Amino acid sequence: MRYGIYGGSFDPVHYGHLLLAESGLCGAKLDRVIFVPTGVPPHKQHQKHLPGEIRAEMLESAIAGIEEFLVSRFEIERDPPSYTVETLRHFRSKLLDAELFLLVGADMYYDLPNWYCASEILQLAVPVGVHRPGYPPPHVEVLSGVTSSERLRIFRDYIVEMPLVDFSATKIRQNCSSGKSIRFQTPHVVENFIHSRHLYEEP
Ligand code: ATP
After folding, report:
1. Domains of the chain from N-terminus onward
2. In the chain, count of helices (H) and strands (E)?
């Protein structure tokens, strides 16, 4: 089985995330994508996110009924900060015969060499770099300092295109707090969840 591990804050999940997962699934010929909502990622420790359980519930409602998509609570149940390398070690030990892939948008792909234990991350999983509006296309050469040329050759086949949608969770949170519409940026069920609980509204 080929598993794509897809980490993010998902605060909240939106169609950009879902299209990225679908594009990774099809483009990298994966069998499953596991969404891993982060606890507190190292680069977002200054930001305040909704509790992990609420973000996981929104994700679960967004992907309900899609067999290939799963949600893991591994990171939200751990003490912060969340390091991707620990998540990959966890899945490596649980999914013994699986091939692991790491789904990342273009912005994150460029940042990968700076991640904690980047070389180990790239040994544990093949990064699947997905295009994102506003960023240059993911380019494997940015990883040349942290992995072997042999691995780089493999990674070349895992740059994936997706229908570009300029959505972000930040924009959705801003729209909610200023009373603007978030319709068609996230599944209807997530939109209802947000409105019924008054999430992201100004206090
Ligand atoms: P925030 O606005 O709160 O920073 P975000 O919308 O960027 O959040 P994250 O949860 O931080 O979403 O991102 C998780 C992953 O999804 C990252 O790899 C990011 O590159 C990717 N991603 C998020 N939005 C898009 C999008 N619209 N198109 C492509 N990739 C995306």
Report:
1. 2-167 (3.40.50.620)
2. 8, 6
